[in-house]
Write a structure and sequence with these properties.
Elements lengths: L7 E5 L3 H13 L3 E5 L2 H10 L4 E5 L7 H9 L9 E5 L4 H9 L4 E4 L4 H15 L2
Parallel strand pairs: 1-2, 1-3, 3-4, 4-5
Helix pairs in contact: 2-3
Length: 129
């Protein structure tokens, strides 16, 4: 991955402890990170700024990650936005639900630095021209 242009990441997570921990991990990997506490806040931020990747918690109050992803995918200019679901559940149905609503991939919590890094590399490289 070329780091000539820093990738900006939106982390959508309602749990403050997880949010701060994931942000610190992403920054340690060299990424700029903005935070949103729920899907509604995420949609507002996404209209103001373009993100190279979005980490989307699946279970949140106000507007969950599944509904937020459906809204984004319904907009033509967000068809190619990379969205990685974050879930505390590792069941096959959870993975399928993430993919059904239009997420590109998903990670289970607690996140490991190596999984975070390899997932970003996989999708950023894959989506580069």
């Amino acid at each position: 991955m070329s780091n000539s242009e820093p990738i900006e990441i939106l982390l959508v997570e309602d749990d403050t402890v997880n949010s701060q921990l994931f942000k610190m991990m992403l920054e340690r990997l060299g990424y700029q990170v903005d935070l949103a506490e729920n899907g509604q806040e995420a949609l507002a931020k996404i209209e103001q700024k373009t993100y190279g990747l979005i980490f989307m918690d699946c279970q949140m109050p106000v507007l969950d990650g599944y509904a937020t992803t459906k809204v984004l995918r319904s907009q033509p200019h967000h068809q190619d936005t990379i969205i990685i679901g974050l879930t505390a559940y590792a069941m096959t149905e959870d993975r399928e639900r993430c993919l059904e609503v239009g997420m590109n991939d998903y990670l289970t919590k607690p996140l490991k630095m190596s999984d975070l890094s390899s997932t970003i590399e996989k999708w950023i490289v894959r989506s580069s021209p």
